[in-house]
Amino acid sequence: VNVLGLMMCMLFVTVYGSTAIDRFLPRRTASFRSTATSTLPPETLWPYLDLSPDSQPRHFSDDIVAMEWIIPGTTYREISRSGDVAQIDAIVTLDPQAAPFTRHSSYTVPSAKPDTPGATGSRTETLTAEGAGSRLHRSRQISNQTLRSCAFLWVDDAFGRHDDEDILMAQGRERALKTA
Question: What is the pLDDT along the chain (180 residues), one digit of tens a residue?
């Protein structure tokens, strides 16, 4: 398959097909994997990734508006921003049996209709030591995705960029703490 031809076809479908074509395409739960590296050791980076309502405020991303426990230690409500416009209200359930530096979570967006893309999903993150730093592995499963949206997310590498942003934010805040 010609990669350039595939990318041109995807550009055409994305621009001209937009979401109108989505109603004719089958939907499925899509899986995405991403990896990112950090200069911080796992013990220092992990508090920025393993967030809950009990986390210290300095560990929160700027996108998190509020968090509150529904069932302490297991389920919490998170309100966050996606860009400047969208606000996401999600119920996050944690797996309390996860190994150290591993987090399994699932989410539901209560206000979304069941067939809405991304209304439910899950995420697994693992942090491993690598030299003086660490490597983050994330796996995401997102419900009701069309082939068009999966291809767009893959070409865009949105999740990889998001992981890089999380690590850069953590490294910047840790650097600021050491210089303060």
Answer: 588 888 887 777 666 556 667 777 788 899 999 999 999 999 999 999 888 898 888 788 778 888 999 999 889 998 887 666 567 788 898 888 888 899 999 888 888 887 888 888 999 999 999 999 999 999 999 998 888 788 878 888 888 998 999 999 999 999 998 887
Q: Is the pTM of this model over 0.85?
A: no
Q: What is the DSSP string of 28-55?
A: EEEEEEEEEEESS-HHHHHHHHS--TTS
- What span, in angstroms and rounded, lies between the C-alpha atoms of 72 and 76? 7
152: tokens are 């767009």
96 in Cβ contact with 74 (< 8 Å): yes
Q: Are 122 and 106 in contact (CB under 8 A)?
A: yes
Cα 93 to Cα 104: distance, rounded to the nearest angstrom: 8
